[in-house]
Write a structure and sequence with these properties.
Layout: H1 21-30, E1 37-41, E2 47-52, H2 57-63
Antiparallel strand pairs: 1-2
Length: 65
């Protein structure tokens, strides 16, 4: 299965394990408790949306329009 999507914009994905130090430190900052949790931020660092559970690539595409 190919998960690559060409949209003409640069996106950075950061994966955190909430059982490791970085994840434990950031969980209360970004208010996430459950895994997986996906949080999408705009270029200014503002949260655009969050989704708990299955990842929806179409939601990402729609957010970039």
């Amino acid at each position: 299965m190919n998960n690559e999507i060409s949209i003409g914009k640069r996106i950075h994905f950061i994966r955190l394990n909430i059982q490791e130090a970085a994840g434990m430190e950031l969980a209360p900052v970004y208010n996430f408790e459950f895994t997986p949790t996906f949080i999408f931020f705009d270029a200014q660092g503002n949260e655009v949306w969050r989704q708990v559970g299955e990842f929806d690539p179409q939601l990402v595409r729609d957010s970039l329009k």
